Amino acid sequence: MTTHTSARPLAGRVAVVTGASSGIGEATAEHLAELGAHVVVLARRAERLDALVDRVATAGGQALALAADVTDEAAVRAAAGRVANELGGADLLFNNAGVMLPAPVEELATDQWRHQIDLNITGLMNVIGAFVPQLVEAAAELGVADLVNTSSIAAQNIFPNFAVYSATKAYVTHLSRHLRTELGPKNVRVSAVEPGIVGTELQDHVTDEGARAWLEGARQAMEWLTPQDVARTIGFLASLPPRANLQQVTIMPTGQAS
Hints:
single chain, 258 residues, seven-stranded parallel beta sheet, 7 helices
């Protein structure tokens, strides 16, 4: 198995990060590169990915940008093929792409329902389908690989007007538990990370006025998590000894009650 220094515990590993053009994905890609991983950043916005790759390189890391929409199965599989051909395959996958569009169910915002389901569930599954074979192969060779899925505290807690979003995140958490039973015996660690409120672009996408007012009130009432807080959590998960797997991690702002 690859040996690591304490400062660069992920040296020699190949980490794929989806939703890497902003927020948690962007911060996590930079942090994993700092820890020594060769990061593959995947998202739709190519110009942002290129800028991220430049920052990683300037800081002494290695990164590859692959512009793709995770809801496009063929594009995701093509990206996975490039990772296999150019880097030998991934052994760490941070499955992070997602969107949050709360609204009262009576508004019948069916386009927003569909968008959340397509990205948060179907996109997640497209990425899993494309990269899990690489994780299994890497785990057989190295003794460990990691699949980390971004869920939310909304998977567990109840928030009015967040029904569809919360349901998609409940899917992510429950799926992760089941995948752990399948992949754990093959040395692939599966974790679901459930953040509370994090200051990212997610809030900028919200169109419902009631939800926007609720979020603004929460912003005034407490200090939100930063993407870097979550990124350090992902780095910690991936740096654990191969025998250790945190199957579910909830990270909350100190001032957030639920």
